[in-house]
Amino acid sequence: MPTLKDIAERVGVSISTVSRVLADESNRAFNSETRQKIWEAARDLGYSVKPPAPESAAAVKSIGCIVSTMQDRHYHPYFSVIFEGIEKELSRNGYKIAFTFTQEDLKRPEILRQITMESSIEGLIIIEGIENKLYNSLKKHVKHIVGIDVSDPDIPTISYDRVEAARIAVKHLIDQGHREIMFIGGTGLSGEFEREKRYRGYKLALEQAGLAIQPQQVLNAEWEPNNAYHLVLRYIDEHRGQLPTAVFAASDIMAMAAMRAIAEKGFRMPQDFAVIGFDDNEPSRYTVPPLSTIHIPTFEIGNVAARTLVQSIQHPYPLPIKILLPFEPIFRQSSTWQA
């Protein structure tokens, strides 16, 4: 069954653009050629959608999605899979996605007004934390909200234990004999590594093994693979003779960027550098060598979030529920070497 992601890839636009065009949001300006291409791609791929007639618009059951960031990508290997899970479960229950906005979109007054004052959505799914002022405005005007990795005891939330997942990833490297382990990640909304859960898991694993954190080995790539690539290149050039023997990256795409930098500098993996990522994006199994990672059930996270929202709308739970989904370590050749 075709999805919004399939249409976005066919046309070369973002999933949020496809979502908004197919929802026929008349108060947003889209290039007419882009609209045409999206509708044609939807028809060619067999995506089941019809332009809403004005007289029936009020009867359409729809929800909105807010994501912290898509990092300006048409397809994001983590968030886009969550959207697939959301979309399929909503469709099964007779709902559709009315729009998908990022936190940056919400900073535009007309977008925030559309959601809080003009939209007829029945609920919202918020994916990861957004600024308090924006979040409180949404919460004030939208009755039903489900959060994915959102810290709010007043709403249903879907998440997984990021601290423990990261701890297990780093413990794997320690169990392989590594004592100097680089961390590559980002700080998120807080701007502080100490509040980032994957960093906390990294730190906890080192502390439990009696190892000290080397501040120079903590690289802030701001979640961007290009930053990770250049930071690792620079680190290797500046620390020859004092290099770590392992890398834990807080996402697979940053891990892949680090692997390229390591290979370009003439080092082998895992013999010289063991590398482990996080998320288990599909490309991770096709790197050279295949990337060790932590499998996060991204599709299921979206699916459960959509199901929880529908349940909250139709038959509300007496209290906000908290659902913690499992993760799975997957150790491939990038971190386990046998002579």
Write the layout of secondary structure elements.
Layout: H1 4-11, H2 15-22, H3 32-45, E1 62-67, H4 79-92, E2 96-102, H5 103-106, H6 109-118, E3 123-127, H7 132-141, E4 145-148, E5 157-159, H8 162-175, E6 181-185, H9 197-208, E7 218-220, H10 225-238, E8 246-249, H11 252-264, E9 274-276, E10 293-295, H12 298-314, E11 322-324, E12 328-330
Parallel strand pairs: 1-2, 1-3, 3-4, 4-5, 5-11, 6-7, 6-8, 8-9
Antiparallel strand pairs: 10-12
The CATH homologous superfamily of the largest domain:
Response regulator
Structural class: alpha/beta
Helix content: 40-55%
- Which CATH top level class of the largest domain fits? Alpha Beta
Q: In total, how many beta strands? A: 12
CATH topology (fold) name of the largest domain: Rossmann fold
Strand content: 5-15%
Distance between the termini: 45 Å
Domains (count) = 2
Poorly predicted residue ranges: 52-58
Number of helices: 12
What composes the largest sheet? 6 strands, parallel
Biggest sheet, spatial arrangement of strands: 2-1-3-4-5-11
The quaternary organization reads as single chain
Q: Label the overall shape.
A: globular
Radius of gyration: 21 Å
Order of helices and strands: HHHEHEHHEHEEHEHEHEHEEHEE
CATH architecture of the largest domain: 3-Layer(aba) Sandwich
Mean pLDDT across residues: 88
